[in-house]
Amino acid sequence: MSASRSALRPYVCSSCRHGVLAPRRRFSSKPAQNPEIYDVVCVGGGPAGLGLLAALRASPVTSKLKVALVESQDLDKARSWDLPTHEFSNRVSSLTPSSVAFLRRIGALELLDTDRVQDYQQMQVWDGETGSKISFDWAEETSPFEDPRTVATMTENANLVRALLSRIEASGDENLKIFSKTTVSSIENGSDHPDGPDLSAWPVLTVAPSEASPASTSEPPVRIAARLLVGADGINSPVRSFADIATEGWDYNRHGVVATLALSDSEAPTFPAGMRTAFQRFLPALGGPIALLPLPNNHATLVWSTTPEHAAYLKSLPPNAFISMVNAAFRLSMTDLKYMMKMKRVGEEEEVNQHDAELTWRLQHTPQPNHIPPMVTGVQERSVASFPLRFRHASTYISPRVALIGDAAHVIHPLAGQGLNLGLGDVASLSNTIEYAVTHGMDVGDLLSLERYSTERWGANAKVGGVCDLLHKLYNVPGQGPVAWGRSLGLNVIDRLPFVKGFLMRQAEGGA
Amino acid sequence: MSVLARQIAPSARLLTPVTTAPACLLPRHFSVLNRPQPNYPGHIPLTFIERGALAVGSAVGSLINPRRGDLIATLGEATATPYFIYRLRDAMLSDATGRRILRDRPRITSSTMPLPYLRSLPENSVGRTYAAWLDREGVSPDTRSQVQYIDNEECAYVMQRYRECHDFYHAVTGLPIFVEGELALKAFEFLNTLIPMTGLSLFAMVRLKPAERERFFSLHLPWAVRSGLASKELINVYWEEVLEKNVDELRRELNIEAPPDLREIRRMIRRQQKEEKQRMGQQTA
Ligand SMILES: Cc1cc2nc3c(=O)[nH]c(=O)nc-3n(C[C@H](O)[C@H](O)[C@H](O)COP(=O)(O)OP(=O)(O)OC[C@H]3O[C@@H](n4cnc5c(N)ncnc54)[C@H](O)[C@@H]3O)c2cc1C
Known about the structure:
The structure holds two protein chains of two kinds.
Chain A: H1 2-8, H2 14-26, E1 36-43, H3 47-58, E2 67-70, H4 75-79, E3 92-95, H5 97-105, E4 118-120, E5 122-127, E6 133-137, E7 152-156, H6 157-170, E8 176-179, E9 182-189, E10 203-209, E11 222-231, H7 238-242, E12 247-263, E13 277-283, E14 288-295, E15 299-306, H8 308-316, H9 319-329, H10 334-340, H11 354-363, E16 376-379, E17 385-394, E18 398-399, E19 402-404, E20 410-411, H12 419-439, H13 447-474, H14 482-496, H15 498-509
Parallel strand pairs in A: 1-2, 1-11, 2-8, 5-13, 11-19
Antiparallel strand pairs in A: 3-7, 4-7, 5-6, 9-10, 10-11, 12-15, 12-16, 12-17, 13-14, 14-15, 17-20, 18-19
Chain B: H1 48-64, H2 69-80, H3 83-93, H4 96-104, H5 115-119, H6 126-137, H7 153-173, H8 179-193, H9 196-200, H10 210-230, H11 247-254, H12 262-284
The complex binds flavin-adenine dinucleotide.
């Protein structure tokens, strides 16, 4: 244990701890510097961090634990987040049924604004180069008299975060401390205080008001110690650096273009009524898939993975040309799309929409499959944005008194919409692990207690991340070569074998 | 009148786009008993076997008689689908001018290309060279056969366009339509368009006489390879718009070198042979 500790925290000089530091501390005139001790300190108040806190507060076993959360952004803003009913945030995630079940179990689901949440019962995925397709729905497994089963549920991240915050608030403020607008400025190992507990193997955090906040000058930094430090602090996780956990990974040299879109009323009534569909078309020649996921009231959210150049081009287009490009991307050939991505941008609104003229003309000569989405008719102002796509996987999720969850542990390609679900899967597993440790009188920060979490999640996440990476690579081979044949054969075969498809869907559903 | 690769065109020249029902991309399954509706006027839908038979038959036929232009045209259509004609269409769709041609669908006939006007253009202009070439070969723009066997209506237009522009290729390259010249042009076209028929017709080489073959390999094939690979896609030239352009300038723009004029070469060789014969005759006399 001590060997691994010194290996993990090489910068703690254990030989001088008693000789130099301790005597000086003994005479320190500031005994208040003793850090406040918490059972669980969570760094990061994104969906993963707040989810963990809500889960711990919801369980009678773990609700007595003394917990803290540190978030550099202003959580009051997240609490009071509100948009008109016809507007949607552009950060939307699809929750799998097992994520939804987890949220229900911790009592956060009913706190979601359900008018802003959209289930979908079917998913159409096809290859823009070969035309082969696969459709996902539960029709094979449900009787025609049942309501169609949900494939996934679209939720704005902000809606989810707000619900989690309400759930945490509803649990009272006993044994709970939330440091909002507060940034972790350093993490180090504590020391062995003669007049206090031996914290030499405990992470001690120094937290200070975030740079931007007006309190940054007035409030002094605070020190807190963690029996278990949870890193839910995103891709550049400071907790991960502290624990000296290596990550493997690469940048895809692709960007995800997101936007909130309005759709035309589809002429054909859906059967059964109210059935909604998600659409994804792979565009090998443009660097990745385009996906249109349903939101309430005939809205949809866009995630278009493409090269940084194409992403910059799309973002530079006026709204009507952007809409034409999205419609084209679900309908036209790779050749047309490549050409249209290079067309001169028309700056002025009143000028003719060349992109639309091209689309209208090419549609007359391009045979359409019957599974394309309805036409996009509008794009919400200021909703077009992009973010770089990356792959990261921590070499381990645990080290003594440290656990990583969410994006701090893994970042994957968004083509399967699994990023947030993996994070919630981590939360469910870690909160169970903590519950088990508490019930069995174990130390929640002990590596032996945490082992179970790592075993449950690391392999599962690696598998999903690996499949997404493979799909990304497979669908980036343009043209009609053997790879294209292979993948169309693959999709067509899967589409025709209900057993295989059912298996894949249960995997995607979250192993339910 | 030399009539290689040419036939009096049917009267129905207009290839109207069928916009309501786009043609299928996938080969359709039907038998001779329930042949589907044509996708455009003049279209003859073929079964897979018919298409194969047509390809083999026309290949053999055109090899036996390379002057059967109808067979060469048929061979072109039978082998161009499904892949190669799409490649050519995509080459057009990747280019601004190519797209404009596909949108406008211009046709080259004696009424859209009035010969008197072309002859009135300045010396060495594309139009004048084209007219001179037509006059020298004794042909007219109306002597191209109608596309019949290509299922996709847009691809049928591409094939039609390719066929109608063929005379311009002769004009800008300056190749005559004797077998050697035609072969050199086919090699050039094959590398430029990748339409298999143009490559397949190179098999007609087996019919060349040894001296012709020698010249073909040492002179014309290298030219065809160099120019065919280096030049821009000729299918994307809007010929109707470059009639007044200087032919050398266009050739430079397209990156084509001027090939040796075969006809001149032939004439030279014929003169040499005649002189030789005369000398021989004088000697024997
Ligand atoms: C621009 C963008 C768009 C995205 N769009 C989609 C999408 O459309 N669909 C989808 O499924 N996924 C999307 N993702 C991915 C998805 O948002 C993440 O998978 C998810 O947010 C991960 O949640 P998390 O809680 O693990 O991390 P995060 O949401 O990144 O939360 C980390 C939190 O830690 C805080 N933090 C970091 N460092 C410190 C510190 N030193 N002190 C205090 N606090 C700190 C940060 O402020 C942040 O709030 C997107 C990601 C980005 C960046």
